[in-house]
Design brief:
phosphogluconate dehydrogenase (decarboxylating) activity, 54% helix, six-stranded mixed sheet, binds NADPH dihydro-nicotinamide-adenine-dinucleotide phosphate, binds ribulose-5-phosphate, Rossmann fold, single chain, 19 helices, Single alpha-helices involved in coiled-coils or other helix-helix interfaces, alpha/beta, N-(1-d-carboxylethyl)-l-norvaline Dehydrogenase, domain 2
Length: 469
């Protein structure tokens, strides 16, 4: 076993993310050790780093310099509780535990409460960037016990991605579970971003009859402009790939059933809990759930009627409309994500810096996009912006793109092509800019059947009408 107290940091969980984060730390000059339940993972990791594998958590902890820093990259949920239960008796006041997994923020709140009085500094850190990002530089969103920040800052900022202005994509988010909340919102936006790209692809395929390679060129072109982003880039790459077995496009042989691990659902649940309008994020989750009932959809296709229209419009012009619709829908999804952050900030008093958070997402993470620099500027102009849509820059982009979004949504509806995220983005935009909504009638209905009362435009107070004689 290595000399006791010789390591700067320990990774617990040497899977896809943990091993690569460890290699990233090692590459930045930190002395790293690691532990996994599986002996073969411990051994192969130790041999890669030229160290000896600890045989137990006790040996792992004993090999760390004080204050000890442990980064957990185990699956979210029960495994985190199991590791914490085993670690707790081994740690001392001032030691830091970072949970870098996609943990539900309410679990982080509970664990912080459970550790109160122990002196152990707990950090819930969102990490995004996937396998490649973990190795080359992820975006990291740490929050929790602020005393831990000076201890972990050199480690986390060293391995994080860097934005174009060389700022590390890792900054202290705030107290409590704010780091995991911000990561959850990142993933909610990720769901909406992915779904709107998929709808753009589907419309080009279903209405314009474009082949994957043609669409690959379209997405590659789009990624050189305002839509420049990692997700559009990888879409162009995916659509260019050939399946070696069939010789056709690889995307065409992949089953149209999307899986999910829960972060988009949690973001939607948090939006409902906090009373935030986030329909495009929620519709992206529902798009996955409806994709999952593949056999039911196949049966319903033989029963349920739809339109029999052929697209007769001008193809190049419509492709440009889809591009603009995609940009508009993406902005709406980001607006919803940032509205969710603002509501959580009000609820939990985290004092979230929206501009800083946009800055952290500029590189390393899955939603990295050119747009995030504009979002950062929007919050620099007005840190208390009511909604991203009303920032002068974004209001201008929406002005340019809203007509295209309408035409794409209308065309999708007329031709029976499902485009739920585009549709809900448009409804969000129109609802948010509506000075008057039909909720007056809704209030009357509530008062009619439940005596719930309503307010009047012409005088203050709550009123009830005896609707039934
Ligand atoms: N993959 C990704 O792209 C991203 C993942 N994340 C999050 O990071 C976390 C880790 O994900 P990922 O690396 O993909 O998951 P993996 O399943 O690849 O790795 C998790 C590792 O933790 C090990 N493990 C489980 N329980 C324990 C325990 N009690 N003690 C020690 N090791 C344990 C697992 O071992 P075993 O296999 O034996 O169970 C496995 O080797 C998750 O919360 C995930 O949501 C965040 C961003 C991106
Ligand atoms: O956190 C991530 C990236 O930021 C993961 O890739 C995410 O867990 C993927 O989520 P899902 O499996 O639900 O699509």
């Amino acid at each position: 076993m290595e000399t006791p107290q010789s390591f700067d940091v320990a990774l617990v969980g040497l899977g896809v993310m943990g091993e690569n984060l460890a290699l990233n730390l090692h590459g930045h000059g930190f002395a790293v050790t690691g532990f996994d339940l599986e002996e073969h993972k411990r051994a192969s990791f130790a041999s890669r780093l030229g160290t000896e594998a600890p045989r137990s958590l006790q040996e792992l902890v004993a090999s760390l310099r004080a204050p000890r820093v442990l980064l957990l990259m185990v699956p979210a949920g029960a495994p985190v509780d199991a590791v914490l239960r085993d670690l707790r008796p081994l740690l001392h006041p001032g030691d830091v535990v970072i949970d870098g997994g996609n943990t539900r923020f309410t679990d982080t709140q509970r664990r912080i409460a459970e550790l109160t009085g122990s002196g152990i500094l707990y950090v819930g850190a969102g990490v995004s960037g996937g396998e490649e990002g973990a190795l080359r530089g992820p975006s990291i969103m740490p929050g929790g016990d602020a005393q831990a920040w000076p201890v972990v800052r050199p480690l986390l900022q060293a391995i994080a991605a860097r934005a174009e202005d060389d700022t590390p994509c890792c900054e202290w988010i705030g107290p409590g579970a704010s780091g995991h909340f911000v990561k959850m919102v990142h993933n909610g936006i990720e769901y909406a971003d992915m779904q709107t790209i998929c709808e753009a692809y589907f419309l080009m395929q279903q209405l314009l009859g474009l082949q994957p390679r043609e669409m690959s060129a379209v997405f590659a072109e789009w990624s050189r402009g305002e839509l420049s982003s990692y997700l559009v880039d990888i879409t162009a790459d995916i659509l260019s790939r050939t399946d070696p077995e069939s010789g056709g496009a690889l995307v065409d042989v992949i089953v149209d059933t999307a899986e999910q691990k829960g972060t988009g659902k949690w973001a939607s649940q948090a939006a409902l809990d906090l009373g935030v309008t986030a329909p495009t994020i929620a519709d992206a989750v529902f798009a996955r759930t409806v994709s999952a009932v593949r056999a039911e959809r196949a049966a319903a296709a033989g029963v349920l009627a739809g339109p029999k229209l052929q697209f007769t419009g001008e193809r190049a012009g419509f492709t440009e409309k889809i591009r603009r619709a995609l940009l508009a829908a993406k902005i709406c999804a980001y607006a919803q994500g940032f509205a969710l952050l603002a509501a959580a900030d009000r609820e939990y008093s985290w004092d979230l810096a929206h501009g800083t958070i946009a800055g952290l997402w500029r590189a390393g993470c899955i939603i990295r996009a050119r747009l995030l620099e504009d979002i950062r500027h929007a919050y620099a102009r007005d840190a208390k912006l009511a909604n991203l849509l009303v920032d002068p820059h974004f209001a201008g982009v929406m002005q340019d793109c809203q007509q295209a979004l309408r035409e794409v949504v209308a065309t999708a509806a007329l031709h029976g092509v499902p485009a739920p995220a585009f549709m809900s983005a448009l409804a969000y935009y129109d609802s948010y800019r509506a000075p008057r909504l039909p909720a007056n009638l809704l209030q009357a209905q509530r008062d009619y059947f439940g005596a719930h009362k309503y307010e009047r435009l012409d005088r203050a107070g709550k009123f009830h009408t005896h609707w039934v004689d």
